[in-house]
């Protein structure tokens, strides 16, 4: 983590239409540009069935989003049958100009707290591009464990991805699960 990083507190709130339109305009620098969402996905962001939430910083600015469930799944992992174990799938994105500043772990933890309270999953799962070492480090520090790799199509190119999982420690300890074992 960046030792000079300000301690930013994040707040979860419903994603508004204004937020969704803003997310659609975000542009990431290469090699992260394939994370750009684009205007064609506005309806998906606003669909309540897709469980998108906004994450704002202490100044009230939109810092990112999370999504939970089926829409967080990646085609290549489905092809590889990596979704057979029950888990809550998580997708997320931070505003491009706030990435790489040492606040990723706090951002991810805010989403994990929300997911634990709202969905009460025993296991959490996410997918990250294999080249995205910066994000993988954050997820590792947040308690996710690297699993299998696979490829998935992104704009007609097969891109390597990594599946990562994390037990929900509160629920697992209450149910007698430690390190995935009863």
Give an overview of the whole structure.
The protein has helices at residues 17-25, 42-46, 75-79, 104-119, 133-141, 169-174; strands spanning 11-14, 52-56, 62-68, 88-94, 123-129, 145-154, 157-167. The protein has 182 residues and is α+β, with helices and mostly antiparallel strands. Residues 173-182 have low confidence and may be disordered. The longest helix has 16 residues, at 104-119. The chain has six helices and seven strands.
Which strands sit side by side, in order, in the main sheet?
1-2-3-4-5-7-6
Mean pLDDT score: 89
The secondary-structure class comes to alpha+beta
The shape is globular
Order of helices and strands: EHHEEHEHEHEEH
Contiguous uncertain segments of 5+ residues: 173-182
Question: Major β-sheet, in short?
Answer: 7 strands, mixed
Distance between the termini: 34 Å
Radius of gyration: 16 Å
The count of DSSP E runs of length 2 or more, i.e. the number of strands, is 7
| Tally of DSSP helical segments | 6
- In terms of DSSP E residues, the strand content is 25-35%
As a percent range, the share of helical residues equals: 25-40%
Features:
182 residues; 6 helices; 7 strands
Brief write-up:
It contains 6 helices and 7 strands; from the N terminus they run βααββαβαβαββα. With 182 residues, the protein is an alpha+beta fold.
